Amino acid sequence: VASAVVSPTTEPRLRSANITAIAVSAANVVWVGTDNGLYRLTWAYNSSTGRLTFPTWREYRLENGLNSNFITSIAFDDQGNVWVGTRAGLSWLRTTGTLVTTFTTDNSGLIHDRVQSVTYEVANGSLWIGTFGGLGQLQVGLNLAGTDEQAGPVLYPNPFVIDDVENSRLTLAGLPLDSEVTLYTLTGQLVRFLEPEQGATVIAWDGTDQGGKIVGPGIYFYRATTRDGRSLRGKFAIVRAR
């Protein structure tokens, strides 16, 4: 059985020998998590020399958009999107390697920023997220596509458990740049108009209507309108905390 060792000694681009997570996509792309960064790479093995080479090598760290260099877990959904748990949130990357956003307790309903494990359930399109504060679920299977051009936004959490706590937020991530979002009831009544910050692809909503009142439980619709007039639509549920 042939074997090859990859370490910072044999591969200087690898910043740490402490490998904390590893996953291989359906396209044979290897994602490697360490305590000092995330790597996306393709590889080739030379049986004559016993050496591994890496035709492509991409690094992700704080300076590349991650919230933490300590990677705890890696999972793929059925569209090839990559979900990376870190000690400071859950990062979402396209199958192409583009970093979309990182979910945290500040911008989403994530229970705790320290993510311990992530796994995807194919049967219902759910991403299960184990954290220091409990178990969370993100519905991704019906909302995402595998390429940047086709992908729609993802809502988190859905359902949105709304209460009177100030930091309760519903997050729409992966929106086309500078999209405007309008929220409606099932009957088409306007609930809230949301404008993003300049250059933003993420919008968070605090569960209040245009008048500042917390909305009631039920099914709601969103419409994201792009700068060129295209519309993306979807629905979500709101439930009250017990």
TrEMBL record:
Any matching Pfam family: Reg_prop
Leader sequence segment: none
InterPro entries found in the cross-reference section: Reg_prop, Secre_tail, WD40/YVTN_repeat-like_dom_sf
Name this polypeptide is given: FlgD Ig-like domain-containing protein
Organism the protein comes from: marine metagenome
